[in-house]
Amino acid sequence: MDIRRYLVRSEDFPKLEKSLPRYIPEEVIRQLNEHLDEFAPPVIRMILVLTECGMRISELVNLGFDCLLQDKAGDWFLKYYQFKMKKEITIPISREIVRVIQEQQRFIRQHFTQEEFNYLFCSNKGVKRPSFKPFPTVMTRKTLPRQLNRVAKKHNICDSSGNLWHFQTHQFRHTVGTRMINNGVPQHIVQRYLGHESPQMTAVYATIHDETMKEEIAKFQGKVVSISGEVVEEKTPEVETGDLQWVKRTIQAQALPNGSCALPIISQGCPHANACLTCTHFRTTSEFLAEHQQQLDKTIQIIEKAKANGWQRQIEMNKKVKANLESIIESLKDES
Question: Residues near 293 by Cβ (< 8 Å), separated by ≥ 6?
Answer without folding.
Answer: 329
